[in-house]
Every structure is written in structure tokens, then in C-alpha cells.
Amino acid sequence: MILLASGILGLGLYGIRQGDISLAEERSTAAEISSIEAIPSPSSTALVSPEPVNTDPAYYQQLSETAIAQENFGDAASVLEEGIAATGSEELALQLEALELTIQLPDYQKTLLDGLYTALASGDQEQVEAAITAWASAYTNTIVLTETPWTSTYRLSFIWDGMRFFPHFTGVGLAFSEDSLYYGQLQDGIPNGSGTMITNFDYFRPGEDEYLRLDGTWQMGTVVGEGVYHYQDYNGDLWDATCVFDGTEAEVMTTATFVYSYQDWSGTLHQTTLQVEDGYLSPYGMEPWNGWYRSPCSIHSGCGCGIRMDYFAEHEGPALCQNPQPWGRESPYEWFNLSPMLYFMSYG
Predict the structure, then answer these.
(1) Distances in Å between the alpha carbon of 47 and those of 40, 41, 53, 329, 331?
(2) Is the pLDDT of residue 46 over 50?
(3) Cβ proximity of 279 and 320 under 8 Å
(4) DSSP state of 100
(5) CA angle, 251 as apex, 246 and 256 as ends, to 5°?
(6) Which is nearest to 257 in space by CA: 196, 183, 341?
(7) Which range, of 91-100, 151-160, 185-194, averages the lowest pLDDT?
(8) Is residue 345 predicted with pLDDT exceeding 80?
(9) Across the chain, what does the average pLDDT equal?
(10) What is the CA radius of gyration of the chain?
(11) Which is higher by pLDDT, 320 or 315?
């Protein structure tokens, strides 16, 4: 009996141990399953990983253009900033600079700029004169007299297309160079094709219109072929000319006909014609007069325009007749003399 009871007890204890082992194994298996379930699968990891950064500048440029088309200039600038950070693109940096210049442009200056663009696009002389006068007067009144905010266009490398500034612009637009502006065909921001160049001289004389206009054809910044000038000084004197340029960077007038209109102290209008041949002012049709030459007046008899042609012989010889205001380069003449045709002139 004792042996039997011991066997039964031993069997019972063995059963308990077996149960404990089975329970432990179950718990271990459950823990392993739980651990396995806790490991993220490749698919779930992809869902939370950041998208790869786009390093194509064209991607950001397209996004910015879309925003600009919707007149969301601020959003366009943000896109370009993001693109610069992602790509380091210098081209995107230039586009951002041009866009920020557009955003910062004062409203009244933008109105004047639009007026310039519209007037030059029309080709109407009166509209152009009015727009140039308004622009120059506003510049003087804001910068010189009142220090009102004004975005400088002096040597500005960006092109105005009628809505905003562009870098490396190709097409028809408005460009700036020092005190000159150009409206017409451009390639990479350089005059290339037919256009109009205007140099303004009355920034410091509000209300006094003095400017030089040249209509012609440019080849990468150099005027070539036929050109038509119109010059008006602050006294109201007028120069109108047709000429032919030699096609070199010196922009020499091989031939030209200048018509000079002038009012004397009594208000009487005089007019005379001067000729340029082979790049130099010609004395043909003139007569000696008090040590000068006199080109006869085409309106009256007995009067004419006196010209000191010997001035050039005394000072470095005869001067070439060149474009007095080349694009992006220094004038071949002193700033107060537009060309040899304007030296020492009077009526008598």
C-alpha cells in the first residue's frame, strides 16, 4: 500500500511538473510570437519613411512657374528657396533674386514701369515722351528729393517682360543699362534684333525733357545697319537723323543725314541739315563764316548754323561720328557732348 501510494504520489508530482513545463513552453512560444509581431515589416517601414529629395532644378522651376501663373508670387519664392536648398542651383538662385525684385517693386514704380513698357510697345512718339518724362521725374522726386523707396534699375541685369523681372531673358522685353533702356528683341538679356534704345539726361532737372532715342537693329549688343535718331535737349532743340552703321563694335556712322531744329531767343524756328561721309562730318554745302563754317538755314535766307569744324583739328584731329550711347559700354565722347555734330554750334 505504501509503495502504491508512493507511486501514485510520484505519478501525480510528475504530472504537475509536466503541466508546468507545458505552460512555460506555451508562454515562451506566445512571447516569441509577440516579439515577431512587434518587428516592423518592410511594407510598414516604407509607409513612414521620408520621400527622397528631388534634386532636379527643372522640377522646382516648373512648380514656381505654376504658382506665378496663379499670381502666387510668395508661394513661387518659397518653392525656389526649397529648390535651392535641395539642388544648390545657381540658376534657381537667379530666378529667386529676380522674383524677389518683382515682389519688392513699389506699386507706383510698377505703374510707371508698365507705362514705359506699353508706350514703347506702341511705338507712339508722344506716348514714349510722356512715359520717359514721368519715369525720370518720379526718379528725381523719390530718390533725390524725398528719399522715397525706389528700386534701382541702374545696371540692372534682369529684364522686364511686362509682368515681372527675368534673368537670361530671350524674347521681347525691357532692359536697363545705367541711364539707358532698351525695348525690343533680346537674346539672353542682350539686345539682338530690332528695338529702341533711349538714354535719358534729365534725372536731375525735373520737368525738363532731354533724351536720345535710337531705333535700329542690334547684333548681340552692337547696333548695325540703318538707324534713326531723335534727340531733344532741355531747351527744346531737336536733332533727327538717319544713318548707316559700319557693323563694328565702334558703331561708326559711315553715312548720316542730321536735321537740326532750333529756336533762337525771339522764338524763331531755324533748321539746317548736316551730312556725314565715311564716318566724318562733311563741310559739303557749308561756307566759311567768322572762322567757323555755316550750314545755311532751310527755312530762312541769310542765316544758318555755325559749326567749329576746326575744333577737331586743334584737339586730336577730326572725330569719328559714332553712336554716342552704345549699349553696356562707355560713350566715345564726354558725357556733356552727344557727338561731334553738337560741338560749338550757334545761329547767325
Answers:
(1) 11, 10, 16, 59, 65
(2) no
(3) yes
(4) H
(5) 65
(6) 341
(7) 151-160
(8) no
(9) 78
(10) 40
(11) 320
